[in-house]
Structure formats: structure tokens, C-alpha cells
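Interim report to the steering committee. The following record documents the input for Lipoate--protein ligase A (238 residues).
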Amino acid sequence: MLHKKEFRLILTNNNSAKINMAIDKALTISYEKDDMPILRFYTWEDSFTIGLGQDFESYTNLKDIYKDNCSKRITGGGVLFHGHDISYSLVLSNTEFGNLSVKQSYEKICQFLLEFYKKVGLNPTFVKDSEYIKLKKNEFCQVGFEAYDIIVDGNKIGGNAQKRNKKLIFQHGSIPILKTKEDKRVGISLEDLDIHLSFEEAQNRLIDAFKECFDAKLILSQLSQIENENLKKILEGK
């Protein structure tokens, strides 16, 4: 009998942007190639993040609005707003998908998101599979369209990004749950599509979709000692 693939499951809720992104960074710098892969789900205070290649000097107005509750991600992409969403991070050895290109691994990982959206009654697809959407870049994540962005009825929902190094593949993304002010830069949410889930319900459904898609066994975990030590150093700016 084949054993299910084991993942550490880390649940961290309602943190600032700086803490959430520092945890992501701590998980990646602490990870060793033969470590158990990690799946993390987390929620946010009202905040925003920017991509690795962006500069906060371009968004001083947003920093004022969000009272400096913002952070830079360790991945690329554009400005993404938080507080209405639940996010995931996935850390795994690059031997898992090392034979796949970035695009191929991105498509494989995102299958659990497609499954989640299908199970709540939506018809999600990748932009690349739509004949009506043209690819376009934008400084705001939810306004642009990349090939592997997920769309529902022509609208982009959530956002995902990936990075790799010699040890690991890291991917994180956002699943918008609650309706916010009407602003195309924020994007649509499940509530906009008449899907009403609490954060806890969404988290449980995402966990179920992940287990189903990856035949995974999730083992509830906390940050390890080395992860906490690295987190402390990151937050102290060391």
C-alpha cells in the first residue's frame, strides 16, 4: 500500500503584512532539501504587499491609507491588497517538481485552487485556456493577466507567485473571501460571486482540496526553533 505524502500544516491567523511575509521568508531560509514539505494557511490585518521588484516610494499614498501596514513579498508580481483574503504558502524540495518547468509546476500546484473553486460551485480556468482574455502586465496584481492566473467568468480571482532556488520551490497565493470596496485594483471575491464562506470554512475546504489533489497527509505543526530564530532575526532587520 502506498503511503500518502506527508506535509507539515502550519496555521497562522490575522497577522500584519510584515509578520506574514517574514514567516514566509523564515520558512524558506530554514528549509533543508530533505525536510518535510510545508503547507501554510494564514489571514491578514488590513494591509497590502508589493512584489520583490517594486518600490514602496511609488506607493506612499497606500502606506498612509494602511498606516504603514505593508511589506514586500519574496516573490515578484504587483501590489496585492489583504484583509479580505486567506493565503497559502507552499515550501517543498525542488526534487518534487524539479523535472517540471516553472510554468508546469505552477499549473500543477494550482490544481488544488481550481478544485476548491469548483467545489464551491464556480467554473474556474487559467487565463491561458481562455480565448477571450489577453495577457497584460499591470503594477496591481488583480488588474493584470498572466497565463496561469485563475479566472471565473472572465474575472481574475486571487493571485499566485512562485520562486525557486537550489533547495526548494516556494509558492504562495491569495484567495479573496469577503467583498470590499468597489475598486478594480482589489479584484473580485467569493462574496462578489454570491459564495459566502467564513475564513475558517474556506480554510477547511482548501485543506480538503489540497489533500485530494496531492493525496496528502497533513500534520498540524508549529514553527520550529530554527524557524522562530530566523523569524526573529528577519523582524529585527538582521
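The longest helix spans residues 199-214. The committee is asked to note this result when reviewing the revised timeline.
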